[in-house]
Amino acid sequence: MPAGLDARFIALPLDALADAALSRARALGATHADVRVERVRTAAHRLRDEALESSTDVTDLGIGVRVVHDGAWGFAAGITLTSDAAAALADQAVAAARISRPLTSVPVELAPEPVHVGEWVSTFQMDPFDIEAAERIARLVELSRLASRPGVDHVTARLDMVDEHKLYADLSGTRTVQRRVRVLPQVEVMATRDGYHSMRTTNPPAGRGWEYVLGDGWDLDAEVAQLPDWLAEQRAAPSVRPGRYDLVVEPTNLWLTIHESVAHATELDRALGYEAAYAGTSFARPDTLGSLQYGSQVMTVTGDRVVENGLASCGWDDEGVEAQTFDIIRDGTHVGYQLNRQMAYEQGRGRSNGCAFADSSGHIPLQRMPNVSLRPASADVTVDDLVGRVEHGLYVVGDKSWSIDMQRYNFQFTAQRFYAIENGRIAGQVADVAYQATTTDFWRSMEAVGGPGTYRLMGALDCGKGQPGQSAPVSHGAPAALFRSVNVLNTEDEGAHA
Amino acid sequence: MIGDWIEAGLAAATSDECVVIVRDSTEANLRWAINMLTTNGQMHHRSATVVAIRRVDGIGHAGVVSGPVASEDDLLALVGQACTACASAPASDDSAPLPEPVVDADYAEGPVATSIDVFASFAEGLGRALDTSRRAGTEMFGYAEHHSSTVWLATSTGARRRAVERSGKVELNAKHADRIGSAWVGRSTAEFTDVDADELAAEVTRRLAWCEHRVELPAGRYETILPPSAVADLMILTYWSASGRDAEQGRTVFAGAEPGTTRVGETLSELALTLSSGPGVLPAPPFAIVEGSVPGLASVYDNGAPAETVSWLRDGTLAALPYTRAGAAASGRSYAFPSENLVLDAGSSVSLDEMVRSTKRGLLLTCLWYIREVDISSLLVTGLTRDGVYLIENGEIVGMVNNFRFNESPVDLLRRAVEVSATESTLCREWNDWFTFTSMPALRIPDFNMSTVSKAY
Questions:
Q1: Per-residue pLDDT tens for A26-35?
Q2: Under a CB-based contact definition with an 8 Å cutoff, are residues B186 and B171 in contact?
Q3: CATH class for domain A7-236?
Q4: Chain B touched by A92 (CB under 8 Å)
């Protein structure tokens, strides 16, 4: 039976809190007010060599009230869940808006949105918090033992789990209650006797339950069992010769490149400058929307908040906007931004596409990315087909190190494993590799994408953005893809001093 | 009130030992962009962490549960959950006896709060700065925040400790209308009353003027002056990578040549650099507050133990690495708690301006961004320059240069540094969400590796 909302959250005086805050905000003259009551429970276990290093179980529960008053934003948050306290937060939020007013040169307006009333729960079979901590840790011990083979000096295993409940209500009448569950198990093996080497599982965090930790959706046991062999091969691998290589990139690595160079770059708040002093801006400027050749003809990227098991999927966003799917890049051309209601209004776009999110009741909703995914080819193009088109290149598996500049131009990524491709066939691993490119050069060099059989939904649990800092979960779907003539560095050379 | 809740919680604990930490936090913030305020807020949060410990042959089995506490009942519920969790918990890798109990004289005092009113004076100055920027055809962006947390820490073995953590920061970024010329200044502060918006605006405007003349330079190795903010980001990353146990296990840049050894005692820099942290150098609680164990660095079993001032690097030689009390006992080393502040000092009296004047040709950076590990064993990191790379010729700044991606190891930079300035209070850029208090010098690196050009501004 599909899981539902947690009765303990529903038992909170949600309607009374929302009514108290909203009625007070209305009485104070707010033109918009929204209330979020959120309970976010996070558990984490860390094992090293089968011993428990750290175990935490943290619940955050509170209420946040946001208003638009006299054209200015105001926000206040607290932890006392009584009607009086909720009304007092509305007072504080309006007071904050009054402080803001003299420094707000453009009055805040929000794009309209139909009224929604409903409930939404992400897809999972087994609530991970119903599993005793001892059983969760025992599963990590089991995986650790699977990876403990000759040549492996240390094994670390981790499990992160989140259960997020959220009430949203606003002055227009929208009132929604949602629940999202996500988990991430990971195992890493290390060899330290002849220099440091490591190899980690490539499975993504998923909007799933405990069943995912047991292998539903990703054969974790099979991957863990192979880690020692991959590690041994890496230890013996030759160092890469730097230069230009064709790359066949697996979705286990490409998702992060999409995340950094496409998903963040097409956030409208960044493009407009609202993140300029922190996360940065974007080379994908509003005045080039519809004409910027972002990538090759085979590049089509969508944003969505609806895909099953997606980490950014929901029923409604944190401004009460219904979850949607929209094009960001179509046939290589940049055609869409991620929006919230304020920016949708400012840009004359009619309606937000539902990309507002706050990571707790104590933070305001920011424009945050939906699931941003590269579409696969319609034909059944396999990884072997892509590799077969490469004479001299590298096959890239699993994410590792990442870095990108503040306009999302220059990036550098490493991977769990790089394999040489010689004359259309995958040869052994090579070591000390990083690939580095400018975003548009890289995506324009994408000659082909794999078919649906190569497609995987990957993602991140903790994408950071904003001040004060917030983290957000997000998924990225990707097929395998072929890129031509990408700059490859030798990291040993890079680290060598002159 | 909170003290009573804690006593009730400790009394209700069914575990062999129990630690209760209550944190009452208030926060206020302002954010602005494109010469106007964009968001603001003030928040109040109160949470508790309960560490319930079951001992089996002296080895601890811990249940660690955290949650919001609006009432005594909330805290009692957390104690119950933690005790239940420890009943089935496996042995803790970081198990140690609880520290010798200390009772603070101010333990019974209430919380110390902040509010958005702390910005009253600053906001006036900011308003002037935004107005001036608007009239000058430039843009200003930035963020200011102030936190105040009061922490009560009590153990079933008798510790009753209290600490007040107050911290704030401000970042001010100015850009030309084309958003190519860009300058940044930042400050850390404990009380915010010492932040002068007019002074910050004047400094960032002075730096923006350096961007009037623009110079394109290719990738390569350049003589480079890393300013205090950039040095802070690199030293913080080094600090976070300094676990003594991880080094003994061959997993960090501080691993010794032989298995089970570290590089403690090795000279890392010919400059007389000393890297220290603790309550004796910058604001930090005088005892360990650990709401979740950080493997190899901090343990919930160390809650309430003294957080001493430690010199990790002394006169250029690696002197110590962080150990939990359990890790120290296992390794025969001393317990060393990594407080959240950091000072690098070589006793120099040379100013940054003097370093610029003595440079024939080189680069002066503003700050570093998106710094990520590439190779753990050498602590090779990659990242970007940001908000001002300035070309120095014959002792003068002659213009701004394009940004670069770099690949460098901060440990290797310490070895190659040839000059160090006077140490000053600074705000790091990349890690200031987590790390507010640093005092750093500038470093001159004769051959900094600018790996590729970034087109970003």
A1: 999 999 999 9
A2: yes
A3: alpha beta
A4: yes
